[in-house]
Fold this protein.
Amino acid sequence: MPEVSGFDTVLVLDFGAQYGQLIARRVRECRVYSELIPFDAPIARIKAFKPKGIILSGGPMSVYVEDAPQLNPEILELGIPVLGICYGMQSLALELKGTVARTDLSEFGKTALNVLTPGLLLKGLRGDEQCWMSHRDSVTAPPPGFTVLATSAASPVAAMEHRERGIYGVQFHPEVVHTPKGMEVLRNFLYKACGCKPSFTPASIIEESIRKIRAQVGDRKAVLGLSGGVDSSVAALLMHKAIGDRLICVFIDQGMMRMGEAERVAETFSGTFGIPLIAVDASDRFLDKLKGVTEPERKRKIIGEEFIRCFEEEARKLAGAKFLVQGTLYSDVIESGTRQAAKIKSHHNVGGLPEKMDFELVEPLRWLFKDEVRAVGEELGLPERIVWRQPFPGPGLAIRIIGEITRERVDILQRADAVVQEEIRKASLYRELWQCFAILPVIRSVGVQGDERTYGYAIAIRAVNSDDAMTADWARLPYDLLETISSRIINEVPEVNRVVYDISSKPPSTIEWE
Ligand code: XMP
């Protein structure tokens, strides 16, 4: 049974939309809490959220295809406003005895919207607007009692409403940026039709998180694996606010963090925030295990396993800790589909801790999207460096040193990488880039410095733009910046005499080199 969030809530019923998650995010940007649930969720589950409104998402199918996801008519009897988007509007029209037909015209992409009368839903929109469409079928006649608010070239009903019944529909996608007034449409629905209050703010998210954590943990102890990234950091701050010193953070330095990072994490948490922190310098242990290992997947496996062992040892010492804190995010929950699946993944997040450890999970971020976690982090006073940290792989620099890992190589890469980080930040590009870093391919080449011939290492620089790491494009960094990075590395890291820039995209390359 879902827990009532404490915020005005609008549910998004997912009919298989490409943009389902985006609708929920946009609703939350309007400061109204939203969750995505399957279109056929039992009515009891829907009621348990005590929603103030429901949005029916788009979907890839025609309403006439066999097995097309069908709207549960009971939803229209809940007495709360409903907004259908694209397929969602078509299934509303079908259910309420309007007409949905395959016209010869389909609409994809930017489309002119002709507003006939704004009604409640399109309030603030003028006669001619732009919107974004993606459909083949169209509602050709509205159900009885509905007012047609807008049309487009291929949609005789591009928006409709039945104000008394609180049922609304749009053929276009208000959630995408290509519908410039889309947020206005959503706000009209949320505030005017559903009467929601915009109370889902970082400050109230913190309050609500604390309430939830206290309800779960009570007066018992919890342990958290801190990585230095934004998720585990925000989870740590929320937990500490909720249960104080009954939270113990464990930070394992595997010796392959970036320069100064391990010290910074310790300083931030135990210093600035006064959170009990066990910082374990396990670098010798990890380097020992990695001796002679060159194969990337073996490196990953060894580091993963050793990480579990270390964490296990430390956690065992914390007799009486009942809970293990995980930084699972709402997007992980949606992707995993079920709570069970999410659990398996969460275990994997800390490296697959064995069940016999008998920890119960606390997941204070499992109802938040990444941008909300960042906003909460900022509100809690987390340094910008952590809030906006680019993704950094669990195995750290180990997968950026091609071949065997030695202390000397880690040290060279750390110094070269520090230059990249510094110069990218100086050029105000850090937040814009998905990731930027240095790689040590362990190739030596001939150079000349002063009057001497050198035989030094080459360093590769990688900087990419990406939305989700599934695909990535190499960043067109300014030549002057590349020059500064190159000459600084060669001057400041004597073991290096050559710097190259990686100009491959993903696919066919990957972001990391291993
Ligand atoms: P690739 O190299 O596959 O990376 O394009 C995609 C994203 O995943 C990160 N990455 C990892 N993160 N453990 C992690 O926690 C790993 O073993 C790992 N390998 C890659 C990478 O930094 C990028 O953001």
The first strand starts at residue 9 and ends at 14. Residues 250 and 314 are 7 Å apart (CA to CA). Residues 400-501 form a domain with the GMP Synthetase; Chain A, domain 3 fold (CATH 3.30.300.10).
